[in-house]
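Help needed: design a sequence for this.
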């Protein structure tokens, strides 16, 4: 996943131009400029900013590319260098950020929020549960270092903590609008809390306490939040697409053994693995998809994509999977 060499080279090439453009842009429009890497974070910021017009928001990963395979362009790096606040997830896929920021002097760096740092002890390590395909360790991986699950936004509890941190940062960066940011954030956190309560109700009243994914599994934070168990073909960050005979057999047997009525997949159109699992289980289980929000595009945002709305739809799917 290392992307350091190309990123450092690009930053060195654009350093002079980007540092000059930052001062000019801010002086010209007087707007607070915020860059967020992924859609969920962008949407949190959008809700905190509310109707404040003196704020410019940018979603960096706006083409639907997966966080794990993203490599910044020169234009992306210039946007980061010229913004006032930069917010990113902070996992292994974001190692390029750390290296890019080291090329800037303190006077020219934007205020940076690493959301995984913000969550601290709430982070969950990646894990391989029974029956799951595992990838061989990369040659340069430090075996003594824990790897944390990057999909922090799929927890409403995490979302509330992150929104509080982002709000504090925006208020410090733009004190003239701090009261408006705080008011919007308070309302948004209340909405997140209400939806969190709905998830709790669904989990508490469910027939099953286990979900099974015939796909990657980025929902570990969600299952931890509500005391659910899970089985899946791959880890959330896995690049694998083909499951072994052993994995298919194991998951098919679990569907039968637990009496599950649903096999879950991620958003997208390729559900062949889930279909194979259902076929081999002989149960006629229904295949339903949950949205991990890893492929939301800028066009989707223009068409009304909304974090809370997606999490509400995920709740409806989860309710069907647990009953």
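Sure. Designed sequence:
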């Amino acid at each position: 996943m290392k992307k350091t060499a190309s990123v450092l080279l690009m930053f060195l090439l654009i350093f002079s131009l980007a540092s000059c453009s930052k001062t000019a842009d801010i002086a010209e429009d007087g707007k607070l400029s915020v860059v967020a890497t992924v859609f969920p974070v962008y949407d949190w910021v959008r809700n905190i900013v509310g109707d404040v017009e003196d704020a410019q928001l940018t979603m960096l990963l706006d083409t639907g590319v997966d966080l794990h395979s993203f490599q910044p362009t020169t234009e992306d790096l210039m946007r980061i260098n010229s913004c006032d606040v930069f917010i990113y997830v902070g996992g292994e896929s974001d190692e390029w950020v750390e290296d890019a920021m080291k090329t800037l002097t303190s006077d020219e760096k934007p205020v940076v929020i690493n959301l995984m740092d913000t969550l601290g002890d709430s982070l969950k390590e990646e894990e391989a549960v029974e029956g799951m395909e595992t990838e061989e360790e990369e040659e340069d991986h430090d075996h003594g270092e824990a790897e944390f699950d990057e999909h922090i936004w799929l927890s409403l509890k995490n979302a509330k903590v992150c929104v509080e941190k982002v709000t504090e940062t925006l208020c410090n960066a733009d004190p003239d609008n701090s009261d408006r940011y705080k008011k919007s954030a308070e309302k948004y956190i209340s909405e997140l809390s209400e939806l969190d309560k709905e998830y709790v109700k669904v989990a508490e009243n469910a027939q099953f306490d286990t979900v099974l994914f015939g796909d990657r599994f980025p929902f570990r934070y969600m299952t931890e939040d509500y005391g659910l168990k899970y089985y899946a073909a791959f880890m959330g960050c896995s690049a694998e697409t083909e499951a072994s005979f052993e994995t298919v057999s194991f998951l098919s047997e679990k569907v039968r053994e637990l009496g599950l009525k649903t096999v879950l997949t991620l958003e997208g159109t390729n559900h062949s693995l889930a279909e194979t699992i259902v076929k081999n289980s002989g149960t006629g289980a229904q295949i339903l998809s949950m949205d991990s929000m890893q492929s939301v595009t800028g066009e989707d945002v223009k068409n009304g994509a909304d974090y809370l709305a997606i999490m509400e739809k995920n709740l409806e799917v989860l309710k069907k999977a647990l009953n």
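The chain is about 45% helix and 10% strand.
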